Amino acid sequence: MTDTHQDESLDSLYWRMNGGNRGPKPADVNAHDWRKNTFTAAELQRKTFPPVSYCVPDLIPEGLTIVAGKPKIGKSWLALDVCIAVAAGRFCLGERKPVQGDVLYAAMEDNPRRLQRRIDKILSAVGSTWPERLTLDKGGVDDIRQWLEQATEPRLIILDTLAGVKPIRTQQGYTEDYESLAELHRLANEKGVSIVVLHHTRKMEADDPVDTVSGTLGLAGCADSVLVLNRSSQGTTLYVRGRDIEEAEHAVSFDKHACRWTILGNASEVHRSNERGRILTALAETGEEMTPQAIVTATGMAPTNVWQLLHRMSVDGQVEKVGRGKYRHADPVRSDPLSGPSGSQEE
Fold first, then answer.
1. How far is CA 75 from CA 158, 200, 201, 213, 294, in A?
2. Span 297-313, pLDDT tens digits
3. Fewer CB within 10 Å: C terminus or N terminus of the chain?
4. For the structural domain made of 54-258, what CATH number should be given?
5. Collapsed DSSP state (helix, strand, coil) of residue 135
6. What pTM was computed for the model?
7. Other C-beta atoms lying within 10 Å of the C-beta of residue 69
8. 219 and 181 in contact (C-beta within 8 Å)?
């Protein structure tokens, strides 16, 4: 009897053996106390928390992040540039300065020759030496845990790609996809580091960029943050959403010579600026008044966008409305493509 009920208190055992007729059952010493896992709203109100820790400001916070994009769009170049910036204490993506620390880049699909060529390409563009705090790895999650134990100041881990860690089949359900990232998620939060997993987007478009991540919503549901790199007729954007970061969509550009990405600004503002430029170019090249429909034909823009922008550009003084439904460039110098800086004809 002692072996069978060794985890039960004597009072509780005596109560049970007597049929439970001697008053209420005493609380077991070893019983689970649910109150240990609770706190009051007043206690939460008084509690102070440290600010969110970022690896790359406003883009990659502490925790698990998925960076998704179509094959060959440039995810690996972006990841390598961030790795080098963190390891060497340099800027990346334009004006983003990461927190410096030790970095592990798990290249699951690239051979050492290709890695050497890519890193050398980026370093040549920024004029930097090879960073000593960047470690390259061909292993999986087990290697990551061991590296975390021996690294002096672990800051960032990048897995390129998720399929190299655990193949993801599209017929899997939500639970299977979630569990494929659960260990990495626990590891990132346990160690207080940023783990970034590169993944693909599906071919089918979606209104919500997060829905384009290949697989079920279990992947995005497990991650703390999701970044989607997407190219369209309006340009390339980097969409950002996470539990601890503000939702944003950045316009980005890729320098084919330096093989580095740059954030240009808010995607909507950059797009509007680009469209204004296309309208001004059409008016300058024509050198005469144009109707909105003629501008639509010349620029290939949507008619609604042209109408709205012409009104705003007229208010801002970029174009002049002439008569009924016709517009011209507000700068007479630029309206004549043959005119020089002073407005006179060049010889």
1. 11, 9, 11, 14, 39
2. 999 999 998 999 998 89
3. C
4. 3.40.50.300
5. strand
6. 0.75
7. 23
8. yes
